[in-house]
């Protein structure tokens, strides 16, 4: 079947963290049947594509990104038949399902790895990166989660893991392994899957000698980015992957492709690119991580023009070669308001402004579960309330640097990945309606303040505003402009305003103020009609627009 590369471009996507979306059986963990029960909610919201974080069989060391069986569904999420039902029921509502595809590594509980450990001469041993080294790791690479990227399995034998030690890296130099992965991908696509979000894919090619590099920290180790991310030769592997799988289907692929330079975007998402689209992290990761989370700058300590300039650079460079995936939140980030707004200014008005800013950019918008409710970071009182492996590592770093547990948990509360993984609040009842059992992760402290049921009844809620944004973007009158129109930055003289014009058969201006005070801006165009605003009315006089604190406008330019 010929692949229609354009079917997804005017759609709206939604990301689900299945463990925290909806629990159908009362065991405290979200599951596939829970998602099925909420498909009407997604359809009513206006969602066309749903990306599921991993639901494969897994020991859940890293939220399911450690896969023990690519062909099976983990019992905490249900059965394989439940996945088939989800695909079928979603299709009935015009919704396509994307699964998360984890190809750089698997779980140390995968049968391949168990056989590799049991017999160093087995075929499965060649599926991984084993090396011999006496008394110390084979090189000084540091894993993404801290500590050595090598784990000893007895004697002088070590294996490479760029992430958790329970996530051994797969050896993509082995053609037999690659074929097994292709067969698995095609198995899911044959079921009618809409496509995949592809995890950590830019790490599959390693520097062949696996040599040590100059350390970048007093620990004597070096981050593993340079020798394992977008390493020369990765293109041959990605081309073969596409030709043996995605090219055979009418599916969508969106890559987690960190570190791809703009000069290479064309080969990744151009007309004959490896993937349909990708996430660009340059504007969403503005922290200077430094040694640990506790060293990061808070939102009010860096100018908002940093976000503006990086966001526009991403938009302009991506538009030259293809179509991006735009977003502000996902399962690996704290809530956007914690990244881009001082705490005292987080409210419904500023949350709507943040949503407006990203939602009308060029590219397919991805909404992360709860973002449409204006969810904020929860408050974790101790590290015992946290599940995320990366968070626990940063907490240990903070303690080792001399912080008290009370000081260390403050960094957790701002930056932890679990901030976005707490259960979705469906109503104001017990556990926010997420489960009748004990939730696997604490429910948000303020679930009675923002939940889907109450916000659906409130015409001024963040949820109601997101519905308006989706309706506007999908409207017959403005869809072409808001899907394919160019992005022209405007009002650059204001460092606390981010504004742009979407060009095309219509001209639509999006103006977002990050200023906590009222301010006037001189518009570079004449008359306009207001299509959408997070506040009631528009104040304009002789081409000057008066913006109230955190106000946003979507304006149809006249003439």
- Approximately what portion of the residues adopt beta-strand conformation? 15-25%
Distance between the termini: 44 Å
| Major β-sheet profile | 8 strands, parallel
Number of strands: 23
Plain-language structure description:
With 559 residues, the chain is an alpha/beta fold. The chain contains 16 helices and 23 strands.
List keywords for this structure.
single chain; five-stranded antiparallel β-sheet; globular; eight-stranded parallel β-sheet; 16 helices; alpha/beta; 559 residues; 17% strand
Sum this structure up briefly.
This protein is an alpha/beta fold and 559 residues long. Helices cover 27% and strands 17% of the residues. α11 (348-359) runs parallel beside α15 (462-474) and α12 packs antiparallel against α13 (405-415).
């Amino acid at each position: 079947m010929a692949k229609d590369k354009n079917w997804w471009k005017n759609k709206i996507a939604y990301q689900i963290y299945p463990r925290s979306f909806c629990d159908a059986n009362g065991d405290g963990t979200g599951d596939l049947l829970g998602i099925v029960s909420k498909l009407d909610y997604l359809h009513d919201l206006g969602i066309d594509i749903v990306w599921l974080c991993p639901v494969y069989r897994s020991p859940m060391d890293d939220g399911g990104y450690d896969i023990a069986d690519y062909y099976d569904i983990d019992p905490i999420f249900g059965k394989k038949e439940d996945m088939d039902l989800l695909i079928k029921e979603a299709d009935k509502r015009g919704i396509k399902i994307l699964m998360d595809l984890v190809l750089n590594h698997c779980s140390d509980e995968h049968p391949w790895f168990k056989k590799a450990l049991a017999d160093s001469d087995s075929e499965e041993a060649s599926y991984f990166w084993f090396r011999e080294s006496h008394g110390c790791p084979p090189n000084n690479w540091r894993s993404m989660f801290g500590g050595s990227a090598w784990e000893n399995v007895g004697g002088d034998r070590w294996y490479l893991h760029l992430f958790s030690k329970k996530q051994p890296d797969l050896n993509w130099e082995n053609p037999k392994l690659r074929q097994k992965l292709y067969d698995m991908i095609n198995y899911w696509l044959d079921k009618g899957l809409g496509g995949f979000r592809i995890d950590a894919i830019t790490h599959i090619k390693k520097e062949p000698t696996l040599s040590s590099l100059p350390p970048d920290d007093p620990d004597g180790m070096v981050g593993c980015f340079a020798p394992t991310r977008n390493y020369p030769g990765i293109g041959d592997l990605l081309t073969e992957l596409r030709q043996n799988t995605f090219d055979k289907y009418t599916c969508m692929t969106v890559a987690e492709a960190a570190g791809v330079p703009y000069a290479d975007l064309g080969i990744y998402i151009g007309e004959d690119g490896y993937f349909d689209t990708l996430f660009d992290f340059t504007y969403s990761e503005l922290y200077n991580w430094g040694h640990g989370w506790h060293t990061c700058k808070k939102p009010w300590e860096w100018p908002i023009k940093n976000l503006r300039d990086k966001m526009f650079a991403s938009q302009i460079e991506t538009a030259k070669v293809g179509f991006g995936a735009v977003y502000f939140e996902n399962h690996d980030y704290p809530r956007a308001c914690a990244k881009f707004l001082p705490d005292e200014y987080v409210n419904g008005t500023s949350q709507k402004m943040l949503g407006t800013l990203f939602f009308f950019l060029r590219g397919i918008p991805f909404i992360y579960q709860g973002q449409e409710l204006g969810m904020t970071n929860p408050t974790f009182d101790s590290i015992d309330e946290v599940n995320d492996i990366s968070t626990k590592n940063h907490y240990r770093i903070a303690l080792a640097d001399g912080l008290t547990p009370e000081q260390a948990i403050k960094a957790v509360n701002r930056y932890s990945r679990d901030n976005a993984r707490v259960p979705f609040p469906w109503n104001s009842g017990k556990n926010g309606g997420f489960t009748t059992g004990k939730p696997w992760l604490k429910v948000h402290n303020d679930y009675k303040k923002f939940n889907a049921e109450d916000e659906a009844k409130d015409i001024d809620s963040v949820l109601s505003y997101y519905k308006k944004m989706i309706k506007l973007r999908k409207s017959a009158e403005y869809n072409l402009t808001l899907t394919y129109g160019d992005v022209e930055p405007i009002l650059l003289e204001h460092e606390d305003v981010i504004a742009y014009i979407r060009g095309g058969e219509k001209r639509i201006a999006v103006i977002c103020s990050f200023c906590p005070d009222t301010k006037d801006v001189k518009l570079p165009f004449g008359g306009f009609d207001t299509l959408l605003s997070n506040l009631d009315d528009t104040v304009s006089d002789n081409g000057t627009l008066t913006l109230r604190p955190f106000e946003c406008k979507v304006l149809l330019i006249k003439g």
